[in-house]
Amino acid sequence: MNQSMQHITPLPKRVQPHQWEDLGSFLVRTAKAMGYETPQWLLQPETSSYRILSRKLATLSLQADYDFLSQLLLVPETRLYQMTIHRFSPLLESYSDAQQRTSMQRRQQQHLSTPYPWRRVHRQLFYRDLGGFFLSNSSTIRICPLCAQAPDAYDRIYWRIRPLLTCPIHQVLLQTSCPRCLQPWPSLRFSGARCPACLQPIHQDPQDIQTQNHPAFFFLLQGDSLLLQMFGYEQGPSDRIAVSRAQDLRAFLPAEEFLRLFHVYCTKISSFSKEALSTFLPSSFSALVTLLENTTGSRRKRNLALQSAITHWLFLGGEAHYFAFLDTLNFLQREAHPVALFRTIPWGAFASYTPTFRLLNHLHQRYRSLYQAQGVKALEERVWQRTHAFEGEKAPADTAGSGTRLSTTT
Q1: Residue 277: which H helix or E strand, with range?
Q2: 172 near 212, Cβ under 8 Å?
Q3: What's the pTM?
Q4: What is the DSSP secondary structure assignment for residue 235, as one 8-state letter?
Q5: Neighbour-count burial for 23-35, b at 16+ CB within 10 Å, e otherwise
Q6: Coil, strand or helix: which one is 62?
Q7: Residue 338: which of 346, 347, 330 has the closest Cα?
């Protein structure tokens, strides 16, 4: 520790961090234990000239910041690190490509030659070009409205996993903003179970409740359960859902390959129109997607939520879902690339020695053995029959605006 930090006196009243707690939440609970009016007093105490910006808490990176908080709170550097999104960096490093790993390693090696006030902690760190798709480093945070109402409420760091849609404990949608005033939830929230902007009690949005009551909502819960496991989360006794990993075709993949596959399919699905989606998504799941589209805030977050939900659906429920998806891919390419129909694995972004390639290759070979000999006419018939069947299942209100297109993001 730098000598300038040695004069900092530890707080007389402290709390212990919870497992998976977000650093902002931990500072809020500490400030309340001290009787402070605001957690900002911890980031810039009267007895010290040192200051930490609240917007940097999720990605706390400077060695001096860690030394300051570790001395003030008597919490080891390792534990502080675990309360930031940097804790996921080892996984994201293995998920990234070689060029990104080299860039990150070069940044880490520069720390010893940097003067102490600007020196980064000697640990694996999050960088937006490495994990920006998966993690949010914002000064705001999504919350579970039911977790927030608990007597010992605290924010979880895994709420910052951007494609995660639900809480593993309460099986409800994570909430981006207050349903009443629409203000986003700050990570330094000092108002307890009330919105800091409008002071109304934190509660579930009626639209969220409608989405959660939909029968197909289980696909989101099951997909999120596997996603969290890949990020290192282990279900505890309070978690209310126990999902069989055998039901998901991706379940046996290493975590880094699961994330790469997830990213690739979310990105590609973002370019699909609603008309294209309707050729392989049954009306029951399309209805859930429509409900989900109405429950999220910004356009970017809304699109990511839809991509995540559809990607989970693709690999859940055995081969039937994935084969319907392959039918749509071939149907859309039947005129532009007739020679390539049934012959290529879609989006071959994976080396042939990887488990992901073997999975996709196995699925593709099974699909070809069933359908290639039947030809284009049979393909068109399958897609049209599926589309007509889905349309027949819809209520009249569900079919309104069916020609609109799905926005592209990412």
Answers
A1: helix 274-277
A2: yes
A3: 0.88
A4: -
A5: bbbbbbbbbeebe
A6: strand
A7: 330
- Asked if 312 contacts 285 with a C-beta cutoff of 8 angstroms, the reply is no
Sign of the alpha-carbon dihedral angle for 269, 274, 276, 278:
positive
Residue 391 Cα distances to 210, 313, 385, 388, angstroms: 22, 19, 10, 5
The closest of 212, 235, 127, 213 to 165, measured between CA atoms, is 212
Burial class from Cβ neighbours inside 10 Å (0-12, 13-18, 19+) for residue 177 reads: buried
Q: CA-to-CA distance for 137 and 29, rounded, in angstroms?
A: 20
Give CA–CA dist 204/109, Å, rounded.
46
Closest CA to 205 of 219, 197, 195, 218: 195
Is-contact 177 297, C-beta < 8 A? yes
Task: Delimit the domains of the chain by residue range.
Answer: 3-120, 217-399
Q: How far is CA 167 from the centre of its chain?
A: 11
User: Can you tell me which residue has the tokens 């609970």?
Assistant: 29
- In 3D space, the residue among 99, 83, 85, 77 whose CA is nearest the CA of residue 128 turns out to be 85
- Provide the residue-wise pLDDT of the chain in tens; the chain has 410 residues: 555 666 788 999 999 999 999 999 999 999 999 999 999 999 988 777 789 999 999 999 999 999 999 999 999 999 999 999 999 998 888 766 655 556 656 665 665 567 888 889 989 898 877 688 999 999 999 999 999 999 999 999 999 999 999 999 999 999 999 999 999 999 999 998 999 999 999 999 999 999 999 999 999 999 999 999 999 998 776 666 655 556 799 999 999 999 999 999 999 999 899 899 999 999 999 999 999 988 766 666 678 999 999 999 999 988 999 999 999 999 998 888 888 788 888 777 788 999 999 999 999 999 999 999 999 999 999 999 999 988 876 544 443 333 333 233 32
Residue type, 374: Q
Contacts of 90 (CB under 8 A, 6+ apart): 124
Q: Which residues are CB-neighbours of 292 under 8 A, at least 6 positions away?
A: 165, 211, 220, 305, 306, 309
**Three-state DSSP state, 296:** coil
What tokens were used for 13? 């009243």
